[in-house]
Amino acid sequence: MIPRYSLPEMKAIWEQQNKYQKWLDVEIAVAEGLAEYGYIPKDAPAKIKAGAKFTVERILEIEETTQHDVMAFVKAVTENLGEEGKYVHYGITSYDVVDTALGLLLKESADLIIADLERLAEIVRARAREHKHTLMIGRTHGIHAEPITFGFKLAGWYAQIRRDTERMKAARHAVSFGKVSGAVGIYANVDPKVEQYVCKKLGLKPAEHSTQIIARDRHAQFLTALAIIAGSLENFATELRNLQRTEILEVQEYFAKGQKGSSAMPHKRNPRLSEQVAGLARVVRANALPALENIVTWHERDLTNSSVERIIMPDSCILVDYLLNTFARVVERLVIYPENMMRNLEKMGGLVFSERVMLKLVEKGLSREEAYVIAQENAAKAWAGESFREALESDSRVAAVIGKDELAEVFDYKHHVRNVDAVFDRLGI
């Protein structure tokens, strides 16, 4: 059972305390790299690491004066150090710290989201196997089309979630980079070997090229991967919302004892969580647009990306984490009504076999156009209330080439779902 979600892990990643701790981790790694290659005293990093500390409150207090968050952070840290404090932030620029730390935050967030996706995939996979042979009507344009199974529908979700997982893994790789290359990325005051040292120490890779920042196409890839995940979830949630409509009622979100659906109508049982998933997915997708616009920068640096990223990155990561956990809970506890699926499947009096009828007539020697017209004319009678099968049996054109026993075989649901096993095997379900 998926527990009720309370945002603990993802929220903690994006708390200010953790962000500043990541900044400090980068500063210490830079000091160690500088000492390793003889640019500062060998004993400086150990002294910095032992004495460096900060509080969020003190950083924000200093920032009121500096109007610069990294300078406020550096001052707060060095207030607690002695002579070795002069080697904090030595030879580097703000975004050597900020972007490298951001790589760590995004990498940690990606790990959680990938785990969420893999858990959701397993829940969907289990329910797909459970309903592998549960017959239902397939719909196109909202209209009855041909028979499928509910497990087949869920198998499509499973395949999509696997693609989302691969996209998220690629996005994780794209942002797992750091940079320690100085004010415009030209390594004027810091050795590239220090960058190599820092990134290896922190579990990142050095950006192949950077300016004052890491190029934002990497971060755009990350945000668009989240947006696609959100789109997948909205797609699935919208399907459940439609299938829960009173006139269809093939599935229903779990409704707990004591739960209320409406303040005015005691009978109501609404697809509340699916609607929530569908709505919040739009926020995630909207956040991808400024990430794409952030790819553009004036020369080697401007600040247009900075303020935007303080909102869209934590919000999108937290939202997608929440949506994945919420939808996993929906699927795991989803109430499924096979009897309603069968009732809806049979609602149109056999019209779902119209293509089979047409193909059988072609097989018997009619042209495709002739077969289509015969099937359509008899389907029109069924739309008016007559049984499609009985209409066909009374049509002399059909009776001349298809006997009743052969027509009965045409009206067999097994034909439509005979290859479900092949699809499941292909997906490894």
Question: Would you mind describing this structure in some detail?
Answer:
This protein has helices at residues 8-13, 16-36, 44-51, 56-66, 69-78, 94-130, 150-175, 192-202, 217-243, 272-293, 304-332, 338-345, 354-363, 368-383, 388-393, 396-399, 404-410, 420-427; strands at residues 135-140, 143-149, 177-178, 205-206, 251-252, 335-336. The chain has 429 residues and is mainly α. It has two domains: 10-340, Fumarase C, Chain A, domain 2, CATH 1.20.200.10; 351-410, Ribonucleotide Reductase Protein R1, domain 1, CATH 1.10.40.30. α6 (94-130) runs parallel beside α11. The longest helix is centred in the first third of the chain and has 37 residues, at 94-130. The radius of gyration is 30 Å and the shape is elongated. The two termini are 20 Å apart.
Which features would summarize this protein structure in a list?
single chain, 429 residues, mainly alpha, Fumarase C, Chain A, domain 2, Ribonucleotide Reductase Protein R1, domain 1, 2 domains, two-stranded antiparallel ribbon, two-stranded parallel ribbon, 62% helix
State the gist of this model.
With 429 residues, the protein is mainly alpha-helical.
Tell me, briefly, the overall form. Answer: elongated
Q: What are the segments in which pLDDT stays under 50 over at least 5 consecutive residues? A: none
How many distinct beta strands? 6
Report the structural category: mainly alpha
- Taking the alpha carbons of the first and last residues, their distance comes to 20 Å
CATH architecture of the largest domain: Up-down Bundle
Let me know the average pLDDT: 95
Question: Count of helices?
Answer: 18
What is the helix content? 55-70%
Helix/strand order, N-terminal first: HHHHHHEEHEHEHEHHEHHHHHHH
In total, how many domains does the architecture comprise?
2
User: In this structure, how is the largest beta sheet organized?
Assistant: 2 strands, antiparallel
Quick one: CATH class of the largest domain? Mainly Alpha
CATH topology-level name of the largest domain: Fumarase C, Chain A, domain 2
Percentage of residues in strands: under 5%
CATH superfamily of the largest domain: Fumarase/aspartase (Central domain)
> What is the alpha-carbon Rg in Å?
30 Å
Report strand order across the widest sheet.
1-2
